[in-house]
Amino acid sequence: MGAGMIVALASALFVLIWSTGFIVARALVPHAAPELILAIRLTLTTLLLFGAAVYARQALPRGRRLGLHLAAGAMLHGFYLTLSWWAVNNGMPAGIMALLGALQPLMVAVASVAFLDDRLPGRAWGGLAIAIIGVGCVLFPAIERSGIGSITIWPALAGIAAVLGMAAGTLIQRGAIAGDGIAISGAVQNAGGALVALTATLIVGDYRWDGNPVLWIGLGWAVLGLSVAGLSLLVWLVRHQGPTRMSMLLLLVPPLAATEAWLLFGERLGPVQLVGFALALGGVMLGRSTRPSPHQEIAEPA
């Protein structure tokens, strides 16, 4: 099998795995509190990655670097997943939440202009404007209508805040900690996320867990499929294809997630929403087609 075929198969497998991120959330939240699921998931992932780091003899970051890793994980895994899973638990369709997650690179680009003195070409600003219009076309019809497929304003705001949190975590990760080992970085950052999810569990006070087989299967998939296999494939593909081509590949995730949500849960998008979906992805593609910063990182946990 040639190298090109291996990359193609790895790419297809990654997109399939990554698209299930919010499908898992949609399937599990009827059976347990989302914050509790995430606290358990992130803790188990921390232990697995820490074991891998010990095996690979990767040293634990100390001092300020350790704090930065924890902060990045708190934003990337903690606030992003906790807020987005809460949104899904309160009516946000899985496909729309996946679409919001696809906006993260553009949010990072804008934040880099504001806080890191980066320069953003006009094409990226145009892409951002188109993407925002597209997201509006997707969200507003769902907010305005009632019944099946409707969402309230709070899940919509939580979803947007989740993406902003992920963008903040990505900016932290672009700094001095970018060169640390993958396994130990993942372990510490998942620990930071677990602390946020555990705190959210204690604040919400919802410890619902019905023990349904779907719950155990979904939790196993979230840890081994998404957090271990999915992230390993992401890193491998970034190293073999580069961040630009990998970021384009991630654009396949939202439409696939929307299709899976339609098949599994009957989630549907109206005509205006479908147009908005296409506009949002087109805007992200336009914005991502610019030359990336040499320190650009892809960080889109699911």
TrEMBL record:
Where are the bilayer-spanning segments? 36-56, 68-88, 94-116, 123-143, 149-172, 184-204, 216-237
Residue span(s) of domain EamA: 8-139, 154-286
List the membrane topology term(s): Multi-pass membrane protein
**Which UniProt keywords are listed?**
Membrane, Transmembrane, Transmembrane helix
Q: Where is the signal peptide?
A: none
Which SUPFAM superfamilies does the UniProt record give? Multidrug resistance efflux transporter EmrE
Its annotated compartments are: Membrane
Assign the protein's first listed, main location to one coarse class: membrane
Highest taxon above the source species:
Bacteria
Q: Which GO terms describe its cellular component?
A: membrane
* InterPro entries for this protein: AA-Vitamin_Transporters, EamA_dom, EmrE-like
The family annotation for this protein states: Belongs to the EamA transporter family.
**Which protein is depicted?**
Permease
